[in-house]
Amino acid sequence: LAKTTQPISMDSYEGQEVNITCSHNNIATNDYITWYQQFPSQGPRFIIQGYKTKVTNEVASLFIPADRKSSTLSLPRVSLSDTAVYYCLVPSSGGSYIPTFGRGTSLIVHP
Amino acid sequence: GAVVSQHPSWVICKSGTSVKIECRSLDFQATTMFWYRQFPKQSLMLMATSNEGSKATYEQGVEKDKFLINHASLTLSTLTVTSAHPEDSSFYICSARDTYGQYYTFGSGTRLTVV
């Protein structure tokens, strides 16, 4: 099972760029890396997904190095509403894709 | 995109009663759904994998007789908390991945409070 490790918490200020890195040393060849955002008392919400190099969408960018043992979620110009918990997900269990969550990163954006 | 609907969003029940939580995939078919439990300020803990037309697979330490899972169709999975006790109070979340999708979609969660 691909285990993920992230910083427990991060602080930032409005307008800054935030980068959250996730380690997944035993990622399998077929695994995609997916990032989710969760607000209190809500289910996780999909942010971005990638397999290698760089992926960008309207809300974030995802950087994945060649060895794919880590990934970095980049949130440009954060606002107060980006305060949430962010999880990277690398589901894999011997070919049966089981989404198991790590501890996630609690991001607090200050005014 | 794929949408997973979960109901109810919150429920309060008396100790000893049973509560059913529904998870529906609205615009796709889900042969596999997942059920999680989340305590305050903690991560999501996988409880079980729900497979359409077959028995659910429970994670170690999760009582299958207490948390009954039924996945009778490709769009509906239910979790029934039987003989609920205050320690079962938690936030329950379901998830599904459609056949062609590459990521998992989550329901909005159910806040269960047992009094």
Please give a quick description of this structure.
The complex is a heterodimer of chains A (111) and B (115). By secondary structure, chain A is mostly beta strands.
Describe this entry's structure for a reader.
The complex is a heterodimer of chains A (111) and B (115). In chain A, 0% of the residues lie in helices and 44% in strands. Chain A has a 5-stranded mixed beta sheet, with no helix packed on it. By secondary structure, chain B is mainly β. In chain B, strands 2, 4, 5, 6, 9, 10 and 11 form a 7-stranded mixed beta sheet that branches. In chain B, strand 7 and strand 8 form a beta hairpin. The model of chain B has no long low-confidence stretch (mean pLDDT 93).
Question: Features of this protein?
Answer:
heterodimer; A: 111 residues; mainly beta; 5-stranded mixed sheet; 4-stranded antiparallel sheet; 9 strands; B: 115 residues; 7-stranded mixed sheet; 11 strands; 50% strand; globular
Cα-atom radius of gyration of chain A: 13 Å
Helix content of chain A: under 10%
* Oligomeric status: heterodimer
Question: What value does the Rg of chain B take, in angstroms?
Answer: 13 Å
What letter string, H or E per element, gives the SSE order of chain B? EEEEEEEEEEE
Specify the structural class of chain B.
mainly beta
Helix content percent band of chain B: under 10%
Structure classification of chain A: mainly beta
Describe the global form of chain A: globular
Number of helices of chain B: 0
Order of strands in the sheet with most strands of chain A: 1-9-8-3-4
Number of strands of chain A: 9
Overall pLDDT metric of chain A: 92
Q: Which percent range describes the beta-strand content of chain B?
A: over 45%
Distance between the termini of chain B: 37 Å
Q: Mean pLDDT of chain B, rounded to whole units?
A: 93
